[in-house]
Amino acid sequence: MEVEVLREERIDKYLAEELDISRSTIKKMIDERFVLVNGKSAKASMILSLDDELFVKDGFIKEANFEAEDIPLDIVYEDDDLMVINKKSGMVVHPGNGNMSGTLVNALMYYTKNLSNKEEFRPGIVHRLDKDTSGLMLVAKNDKAHDILAEGFKNKTIKREYIALVCGVINEDTGEINAPIGRDVKDRKKMCVTSENSKKAVTHFKVLKRYDDYTLLRLILDTGRTHQIRVHMKYIGHPVYNDPVYGKAYDDFGQFLHSVSIDFDQPITHEHLHFECDIPQEFKQFLDTLN
């Protein structure tokens, strides 16, 4: 799989953070030439450049034997090639450091044997949502579908929209946030708007409703940076409500951010598909208190 280089950093440290795999495992993968930079093998101490092409080959022995777990799934759509899942808030997408069970991947492995294997540590997973972001996700059931869907995300032919409740009142009916995002040097688990070791990030928003102290937004992304909506909303002074990382947590539900719709062409039949799913009950109940 291809891994986008977002900052200049040691390759072992960078991959450990981006893939959520232990640094010792990453070092073994590098030593055994499962990691390529610009088509060539690398050393763990190599410093990546923003224009490097970074590729991680399949076939390395997994860091752990991921267990299939009987966890309920909200399946919005399924065919021979893919599934559309409505992921609940609080569910981690794939196993990694500190999260080896209870993830979407554990649930998918119990539900079906048919999952793409393009990303060894993340069977079936074409894209991700943050742990506490709810809503629609695509899952690939074979490698051909995975490749085509991944290309669709890369070329922006797959369209996704989000609903978010943000703190404060936004006066503009629509807006665009164009601000580059990179890793926060003070806290490596966070992202921030910065001109250093960053990538272009563009978020469009439309106001759906204004409350006394909050604004309900519909958002579309031109780019897919890590934590993009959460970082951009904090940047303009309107953090997503209940965001424990970029704002303030009021309860344990997680940030009020929901992947509400997805548009794409079925990768094999080319049929155009569109799906929407309502915001979670906790989100809806809080909005009712505001009314």
CA-to-CA gap between the ends? Answer: 47 Å
Radius of gyration: 19 Å
Element string (H = helix, E = strand): EHHEEEEEHEHEEEEEEEHEEH
Tell me roughly what share of residues is in helical segments: 10-25%
Give a verbal description of the structure.
With 291 residues, this protein is of the alpha+beta class. Helix content is 19%, strand content 27%. The strands form three sheets. Strands 5, 6, 7, 8, 9, 13, 14, 15 and 16 form a nine-stranded mixed sheet that branches. The termini are far apart.
SSE layout and pairings?
Blueprint: E1 2-3, H1 11-19, H2 23-31, E2 35-37, E3 40-41, E4 54-56, E5 75-78, E6 82-87, H3 104-111, E7 134-140, H4 143-154, E8 159-167, E9 174-178, E10 181-183, E11 191-193, E12 198-199, E13 202-210, E14 214-221, H5 228-235, E15 257-265, E16 272-276, H6 281-290
Parallel strand pairs: 7-15
Antiparallel strand pairs: 1-4, 2-3, 2-4, 5-6, 6-7, 8-14, 8-15, 9-13, 10-11, 10-12, 13-14, 15-16
